[in-house]
Amino acid sequence: MSIVVTCASSRLGRRVAQALAGRADLVLADTEPHRLGGLARHADFADPMTLPAAFAGATTLLLPGGGQGALATSQLATAIEAARGARLERIVLLSSIDPRLGNPAAWAEADRTAEAMVRSCGLGWTSLRLQEILEDFVDIGRRQQAGKRMFAN
Question: Can you give the pTM of this predicted structure?
Answer without folding.
Answer: 0.78
